[in-house]
Amino acid sequence: MARNAALWLAAAWALSLTTLGFFVVPMLFVYLPSPALAGAMAGHLFQVQTGISAFCALLLLGIEWVGRSQARQKRQPIVVLLGLVCALGAEFWVSPHIIARDNLALWHRLGSGSYLLQWLCALAVFYGHTKQLNAEARTD
Hints:
Layout: H1 2-31, H2 35-66, H3 76-99, H4 104-139
Helix pairs in contact: 1-2, 1-4, 2-3, 3-4
């Protein structure tokens, strides 16, 4: 049961990042009347995404902690923590600089890099849980 929950959480985390970062935000810049308006809306959506990411990551860490006596992949918690740090770092360290328009190109690149790394972490966690469930299914 917990393994299925972890897989669903990892999927929700990865798919929410994919949907927002690769579909919704680019569409804002295409269809809203000004880049400033699109950027402001994207900022609000990224705040919501940080909450989703933190929720998924913390629950995944909780599931990992509860099941720590079972055979688990040792790198999963580190990857989850890295993704969580990327999400929180972008929200509380990078975002204020972007809002203040403080060296916008640099901070935007750092935010984009952090988002990409977070997305890769979420995909790795999802892949790890999928691989683990497939291995368990073959042994049953």
